[in-house]
């Protein structure tokens, strides 16, 4: 049963058909929000979510989160169908395992397109439609804050470092309009992105970095997303909330 804490609100969630994005969309819908789910290719999963939430309260829009044109179309469809935008959650991510020597120019461009360019221009295109009380939420990584990070995460964390600086400055840019800008920094989470075909030894090694020895769940990340989306977080802006079970 919805708490209606977000009744009357409209949320855009990129990468919203699986993992943390899916859990967040379902959580915000439970709180009464209408949700717009952007996905690149998961037609079946996105439609299942629309069916679960209800067609009056959910919309699936196919698109590439790193495409400026697709971001413009996402904004246009949202305003056309629901008339407003209150919450923007840029959740799409790309995690290449590349150290300095193994990074190609294409690797670099692909990583920056998805993890930096996409959020940057999504916010730019959404900004004219945001009003006082609106929320912008991005995704960083707990690995930005641990000393045990290994070389193959160099490229990914270069992008996430950019996200953290984006948060810091956008808070000053959008704050005068009473729009908050925050990010969550998940630790290892049980999703396709962070555990793609991990072997049991690799999985156990990751779990060993966390005090209670397990991965986080998408639902646990979604709870923090719901908090940052709500009026309860009105005085929280420019922050990177580490949701990682004590890993960092």
TrEMBL record:
Keyword Isomerase present in the record's keywords: the answer is no
Question: Where is this chain compositionally biased, Polar residues type?
Answer: 191-202
List the keywords (alphabetical). Answer: NADP, Oxidoreductase
Q: Does the keyword Oxidoreductase apply?
A: yes
An example of a GO molecular function for this protein is: oxidoreductase activity, acting on CH-OH group of donors
User: One Pfam family name from the record?
Assistant: adh_short_C2
Q: Which InterPro entries match?
A: NAD(P)-bd_dom_sf, SDR_fam
Using the UniProt annotation, give all residue ranges assigned to the region (Disordered): 185-210
Name the family the entry cites: Belongs to the short-chain dehydrogenases/reductases (SDR) family.
Protein's recorded name = Uncharacterized protein
Q: What is the lineage of its organism?
A: Eukaryota, Fungi, Dikarya, Ascomycota, Pezizomycotina
């Amino acid at each position: 049963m919805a708490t209606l804490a977000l009744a009357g609100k409209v949320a855009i969630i990129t990468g919203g058909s699986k993992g943390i994005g899916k859990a967040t969309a379902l959580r915000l819908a439970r709180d009464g929000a209408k949700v717009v789910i952007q996905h690149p290719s998961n037609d079946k999963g996105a439609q299942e979510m629309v069916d679960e939430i209800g067609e009056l309260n959910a919309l699936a829009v196919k698109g590439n989160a790193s495409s400026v044109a697709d971001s413009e179309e996402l904004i246009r469809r949202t305003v056309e169908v629901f008339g407003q935008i209150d919450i923007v959650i840029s959740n799409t991510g790309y995690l290449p395992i590349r150290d300095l020597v193994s990074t190609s120019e294409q690797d670099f461009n692909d990583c920056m397109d998805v993890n930096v360019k996409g959020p940057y221009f999504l916010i730019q295109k959404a900004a004219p439609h945001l009003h006082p009380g609106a929320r912008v939420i991005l995704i960083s990584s707990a690995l930005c804050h641990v000393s045990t990070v290994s070389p193959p995460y160099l490229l990914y964390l270069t992008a996430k470092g950019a996200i953290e600086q984006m948060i810091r400055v956008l808070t000053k840019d959008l704050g005068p309009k009473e729009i908050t800008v925050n990010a969550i920094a998940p630790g290892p989470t049980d999703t396709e992105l962070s555990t793609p075909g991990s072997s049991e030894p690799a999985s156990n090694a990751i779990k060993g970095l966390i005090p209670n020895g397990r991965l986080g769940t998408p639902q646990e990340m979604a709870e923090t997303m719901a908090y940052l989306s709500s009026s309860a977080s009105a005085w929280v802006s420019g922050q990177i909330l580490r949701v990682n079970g004590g890993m960092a």
